[in-house]
Write a structure and sequence with these properties.
InterPro entries: TPR-like_helical_dom_sf. By secondary structure, the protein is mainly α. It contains 20 helices and two strands. It is 78% helix and 1% strand. The radius of gyration is 25 Å and the shape is elongated.
Length: 408
């Protein structure tokens, strides 16, 4: 299994790693060694997850857990739970993913491995789920726990991984750039040492590019370079790069190619990452909105919103609701815009987006008087019209009651 691990983790040559896994499992089966079988099947799960075959990876992870239970090896069972959690995360099942990581950590506690490498990666998985749901406070708390544990255990590699993950979170949370830069530089210095996977340096690159973009540096050179380096090697990092390139709203008024949004959609469909698919639809909706095709944009935003609601992703839900509210205001439906913006506010607040919350407060304050005036006008129109129920029209809408009039 050592050779398979080398090709999977160090070289990222998954086909060769898969061949060695097959040999290892065959030998373990012939000797009746359930522990070695579990180890080989765990590696199968890892490889299938890494190449985007999540349903197959989940099946291998479940089989690894079964074999580990037979042999009584709790650490192998914990690894099986971990890889099943990774597959569920990619498929958008965050609730069950978190449940599996909790079980995996409990098994490690039972066998005295709560401070080993596998414990760190399971904690990182937990933090990642909170991050993709835009629960940044919870994710940061877990990363701080990893930082503290790795520091006390004198584990520079895991400490550097946690620093990089923390930097990624802090970019999203709006932390000062100098604080983030120090973490990126420290992590990169560790990852550049001999013996560490080169992909970790690429991870630092895309976090750096994300920070640069947030600070107004409109160059896509670093993201594109990182994307070239990780293609065919790590679909997750490639997805992170493409997500940044595809979100045209983050590039302001720059002449940024909208084709990245289509490329991101194709990548998302290929990797079958559910969250990325819905984000790509949101970004394509932004393109249609910019081109004043509001019908198509609205359909895409509604489709993306439905997905974000099903996965309980706070910030992306808020962004879609905000855009639909903007469209309502543009078409003169101030009451509807007001309600939608109010609905988006707590979601931005939950994801610690202070700037976005302030922006919504300013929007609400700016139109509050106009909303009250529209409210009074709707009531006045309803009071003066003497028409059959369901035949009163306000702003082109049939209304049957005072309550319906207030929604127009």
């Amino acid at each position: 299994m050592g050779i398979a691990s080398y090709y999977a983790e160090r070289v990222q040559d998954m086909p060769t790693a898969l061949k060695h896994c097959e040999v290892s499992r065959s030998l373990a089966q012939s000797s009746g060694n359930y522990e070695r079988q579990a180890e080989a099947v765990v590696r199968f799960a890892h490889i299938k997850w890494s190449v985007g075959e999540y349903t197959i990876g989940q099946a291998y992870a479940k089989e690894a857990q079964r074999l580990a239970k037979i042999s009584g090896y709790l650490d192998r069972e914990s690894r099986g739970l971990y890889y099943e959690a990774l597959c569920l995360q990619a498929l958008g099942n965050y609730r069950d993913c978190i449940s599996l990581t909790i079980r995996a950590r409990a098994l490690l506690d039972l066998c005295g491995m709560s401070h080993g490498d596998i414990s760190y990666v399971i904690m990182n998985c937990q933090a990642e789920v909170h991050k993709v749901k835009s629960e940044y406070e919870e994710a940061l708390a877990i990363q701080n726990e990893v930082l503290k544990a790795a520091l006390s255990a004198h584990h520079p590699y895991q400490h550097a991984v946690a620093l990089a993950n923390t930097a990624e979170l802090e970019v999203l949370m709006g932390v000062a750039s100098d604080v983030i830069q120090k973490k990126i530089d420290t992590s990169r210095a560790v990852f550049q040492r001999p013996g560490h996977p080169a992909l970790l340096v690429s991870a630092c690159d895309w976090i750096q590019a994300d920070l640069n973009l947030r600070e107004g540096d409109g160059s896509s050179v670093l993201l594109c370079r990182c994307l070239r380096e990780v293609q065919q090697k790590d679909t997750e990092i490639a997805g992170h790069c493409l997500e940044r390139l595809a979100d045209t709203t983050r590039w302001g008024g720059l002449d940024h190619p909208s084709s990245w949004s289509i490329i991101f959609l194709v990548h998302s469909l290929k990797t079958k990452r559910k969250l990325d698919i819905y984000k790509s639809l949101q970004f394509i909706g932004d393109i249609f909105l910019k081109e004043n095709d509001e019908v198509t944009a609205l359909n895409l935003f509604m489709l993306a919103l439905e997905g974000f609601i099903s996965m309980d992703v706070h910030q992306s839900r808020a962004e879609c609701i905000l855009r639909i509210g903007d469209m309502s205001k543009r078409n003169g439906y101030l009451l509807k815009a007001f309600e939608l913006w109010e609905a988006a506010r707590p979601l931005f607040e939950r994801s610690l987006q202070a700037v976005r919350v302030q922006d919504i407060d300013e929007r609400l304050a700016a139109i509050s008087n106009d909303v009250k005036e529209q409210y009074r006008n709707n009531l006045a129109q309803l009071a003066t019209l003497n028409a059959p129920v369901g035949k009163v029209q306000i702003d082109g809408h049939n209304v049957a009651s005072e309550e319906e009039a207030l929604l127009v």
